[in-house]
Amino acid sequence: MSIMKKKPIDLDKYNSKILQGIVAQRLMPRKDRPGRIAALEVLISTPAIKNLVREGKTHQILSAIQTGSSLGMQSMDQVLKDYYNRGLIDFEEALANATDPDIFLRMVRVSY
Questions:
Q1: Contact assessment for residue 75 and residue 62, using Cβ atoms and an 8 Å cutoff
Q2: What is the pTM of this model?
Q3: Which residues neighbour 81 within 8 Å (Cβ) at sequence distance 6 or greater?
Q4: Disulfide: which of 6, 61, 73, 104 matches 68 by Cβ 3.0-4.6 Å?
Q5: Which one-letter DSSP state was computed for residue 75?
Q6: Which domain holds residue 98?
Q7: Which parts of 1-112 are beta strand (E)?
Q8: Residue 53 lies in a domain
Q9: How many domains does the chain have?
Q10: Chain centre distance of CA 12
Q11: What is the pLDDT along the chain (112 residues), one digit of tens a residue?
């Protein structure tokens, strides 16, 4: 059988089996002192995450990250909200780095 006739690899299924976790980082200027601070978005491969990847439902991963905080997961917007509330970064910096500015604004409003 030629390479061209082989069944294509199902990357979603493959990735769901090998995925262990993902960390995304953004560096931004600190408000409280000179320097920068790293905002870390953390995804841990849980059975639910693996299932979402395998089924191609990647649009639902953010929701799974937000509800997985007890497992150590955190979305970028959750970190930015925390840093802003603690006075580590200013509001404009947090909003500019938000993954979804609308969600970030709602999260900041709810916390006050």
A1: yes
A2: 0.79
A3: 94, 104, 107, 108, 111
A4: 73
A5: -
A6: 10-110
A7: 21-29, 36-44
A8: yes
A9: 1
A10: 18
A11: 344 344 455 666 767 777 889 999 999 999 999 999 999 999 999 999 999 988 889 889 999 998 999 999 999 999 999 999 999 999 999 999 999 999 999 999 865 5
Strand partners, 28: 37
Query: What's the rounded Cα separation, in Å, for the pair 103 and 106?
Result: 5
Whether residue 3 is contained in a domain is answered as no
Question: Is 4 within the bounds of a domain?
Answer: no
Closest CA to 98 of 74, 84, 77: 77
Helices and strands (H, E) in the chain, number of each type = 6, 2
Amino acid at residue number 67: T
Give CA–CA dist 52/54, Å, rounded. 6
Indicate whether 1 belongs to any domain. Answer: no
